[in-house]
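ENTRY TYPE: protein
WANTED: fold as tokens:
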Amino acid sequence: MPILYRTDAKTEEGYPGISRTVLVDASHGAKSLWVAHLEIEPGARVTTHIHPDTEEAMVIVEGQLEAVLGDEVVTLGPGDTVLAPAGVKHGFVNRSGAKAVLLASFPKTSFQRMAAD
């Protein structure tokens, strides 16, 4: 069983103002899982998008985020989770004055992402 250390993971800018660290994927030996840690600065946004072929779960770990799921818009905090079914638009905006953190996960190691209105 591999032990994966965050300090060994590569961090990059996923969107402006958002750092993304992929914690688990095929390069780490996963067969059917992808997990990333996102730090979302105040004012930053994960643009609204869909994954046509898979669901995604996103758990807010720290801070407050405005979440879009389908036609619903809600403000969420630590411990709240967005479960986006395949083909359903979703995204986040950090409207607070503090950094927010979320964990995103997919039940597969690769997936498609398409912009949504």
In short: The CA atoms of residues 50 and 114 lie 5 Å apart. The longest strand covers residues 18-24. The chain has one domain: 12-110.
